[in-house]
Amino acid sequence: MQNAFHTAEAYKRQQIMTASPEMLILMLYNGAVKFINEGIKHIEEKDCIKSNKALIRAQNIMIELMSSLKMEYDISKQLYPLYNYIYRILIEGNMKNDKEKLEEAKGLILQFRDTWGQAMKKAQQEKSDA
């Protein structure tokens, strides 16, 4: 069992190390959704310690997304306050065990993820057409 865990962890590390910057952003969005879902599940189970740990991981992903923005681009200037808003409602949802706030954050992240995925597909299509 232990060996399978280490193999899975090594595979996950390799995936991250070889991913394109675009894929890393997608992975961050997916990770944030995963940890929000875990946090909500643990809130429902009345396990505040586990929910806090999961939601802090989602908050850290939002910090990573904010810090990865290149502020010389207009889109980054538009994304930063939106990411910051998500970060703040994650904190509030975590502090108050407010599933509604967490669902709001998750919904916004899912919109970003889906839009990002569509942009990646379009860019790949344009690249292969060229």
UniProtKB/TrEMBL annotation:
Looking up CDD domains in the UniProt record yields:
FliS (cd16098)
SUPFAM superfamilies named among the record's database cross-references: Flagellar export chaperone FliS
- Key words of the record: Bacterial flagellum biogenesis, Cell projection, Chaperone, Cilium, Cytoplasm, Flagellum
> What's the domain of life for this entry?
Bacteria
Kindly list the places in or outside the cell where this protein is found, as annotated in its UniProt entry. Cytoplasm, Cytosol
What is any Pfam family matched here?
FliS
The record's comment on protein family reads: Belongs to the FliS family.
Name of the molecule in the record:
Flagellar secretion chaperone FliS
Native organism: Pectinatus haikarae
